[in-house]
């Protein structure tokens, strides 16, 4: 059985051997140097009626410190120009509730987001469903609470059963370790509570211990692949590795155990995976250069209909000429495809700590 990892026997390219996709352009969508809010993290991006909607969370201090709110912009010309910032939820001056992160998606022609409400670091309260208003994009409506305090870093995916599936994770709570899971909607009525399916028993004696088990999914028919960030943990007899891979053959209801480990040098950071319109799988990740070294962001691809990755490209590395030499760390990607172009959003953190939301635009047929 072929596993959704780098193809066995094929050497993984050294970073010096990787090229950038031909035709790729890169731009700054939200410039942190021009913003009063210093902390930006965890971009989300989706396509809706020809518009690109980009979101992120800001904090007035550091991560989930001070006030944390969800903000965004939209573009009607493929990312060349962006609207003024709109506010999804949260307000400056409120230190008792934090909203982080957001996952934009489109359902039945309307724009929604999954957003976690938190009371502080690791104090997740609930995972809520928000809907964009019909007129102004400011102040989205909280439709319902769909689950307990899970975090969602990637948008839900509609399966051919008519259910959505979302990769989520629970932060450390007292004696209960952090762990990944999936949530499955009750059909197309997405405002009802979503069912939880565990990838493994987090309380089992040999269960992997991961500090931030951020998760991204790939769905093809009944087969679901879950890539889970590894914080140098262990799973049974497996030593620590780049990232964990779980598979399901029944739409996420049950999962393979023990987990597999990728043979790709995936660094300690959030990944994002999906399937292109031509049938190729892709995964976006930080190439491992040491613990929390996030200065090289890459994309790997399979052949159409295959599960093993055979090709890898650079997306961002060190400084970028299009940004007047600005650079540093590039991390926490999210992506969507629109009209044959893959749009990849991520966080840029400069050496002085300023954070911006940046975009890479890649014609799908150029990779």
Summarize the structure.
The chain has 367 residues and is an all-beta fold. The protein has strands spanning 25-30, 39-48, 51-59, 68-75, 86-89, 98-107, 110-118, 124-131, 141-147, 157-158, 164-170, 179-184, 195-198, 215-220, 223-229, 243-248, 260-261, 272-275, 281-286, 296-302, 309-317, 328-338, 341-350, 355-363.
Q: Structural class, please?
A: mainly beta
SSE order: EEEEEEEEEEEEEEEEEEEEEEEE
Radius of gyration: 19 Å
Taking the alpha carbons of the first and last residues, their distance comes to 26 Å
- Give the integer mean of the pLDDT values: 93
Q: Main beta sheet, described?
A: 4 strands, antiparallel
Give the C-level CATH assignment of the domain at 38-155. Answer: Mainly Beta
Q: Provide the spatial order of strands within the biggest beta sheet.
A: 1-24-23-22
Given as residue ranges, the uncertain stretches (5+ residues, pLDDT < 50) are none
Helix content: under 10%
Report the sheet-strand fraction: over 45%
CATH superfamily of the domain at 38-155: Glycosyl hydrolase domain, family 43
Helical element count?
A: 0
- CATH topology category name of the domain at 38-155: Tachylectin-2, Chain A
Give the overall form.
globular
Q: How many strand units? A: 24
User: Any idea what the CATH architecture of the domain at 38-155 is?
Assistant: 5 Propeller
